[in-house]
């Protein structure tokens, strides 16, 4: 069985390039209204994605919601976010290392709150 000959792609364009027709085109200009709405989103909220989970272990049977992903935020941003969460949910919260720990099972309410604050999350 003979070895296949390697193709040399350095001799010009690909013969069957599906994107070859796009070479001469340029991208359309962005909508100013869309740019204004993106400018309103806080910078940290666009960079980091928060995730949350429900925990019970090691807390004497009490359920808490742990929010992680804010460890890169400055301390004053994390503190203000924790205060907003506490006020919105009407419950206690604290820092546990790099997590924000909220007392109780509030995952559904947290999703709505983070959507209103334009903060990305997963979970």
Question: How would you sum up this structure in a few lines?
Answer:
The protein is an alpha+beta fold and 123 residues long.
Q: How would you describe this structure to a colleague?
A:
By secondary structure, this protein is of the alpha+beta class. It has a domain at 47-118: SUI1-like domain (Translation Initiation Factor Eif1), CATH 3.30.780. Helix content is 31%, strand content 18%. A five-stranded mixed sheet has the order 3-4-2-1-5, covered by helices on one side. It starts with 31 loop residues before the first helix and ends with a strand. The model has no long low-confidence stretch (mean pLDDT 78).
Helical proportion? Answer: 25-40%
Shape designation: elongated
In spatial order, strands of the major sheet run: 3-4-2-1-5
Q: Which fold name corresponds to the CATH topology of one domain?
A: Translation Initiation Factor Eif1
Order of secondary-structure elements: HHEEHEEHE
Oligomer: single chain
Label the CATH architecture of one domain.
2-Layer Sandwich
Round the Cα radius of gyration to an integer and report it: 24 Å
Provide the low-confidence segments as ranges.
Answer: none
Query: Number of helical segments?
Result: 4
Report mean pLDDT, rounded to a whole number: 78
CATH superfamily of one domain: SUI1-like domain
Q: What is the makeup of the main sheet?
A: 5 strands, mixed
Distance between the termini: 52 Å
Secondary-structure content class: alpha+beta
Please report which band the strand proportion falls in: under 5%, 5-15%, 15-25%, 25-35%, 35-45% or over 45%.
Answer: 15-25%
- The count of strands amounts to 5
CATH class term of one domain = Alpha Beta
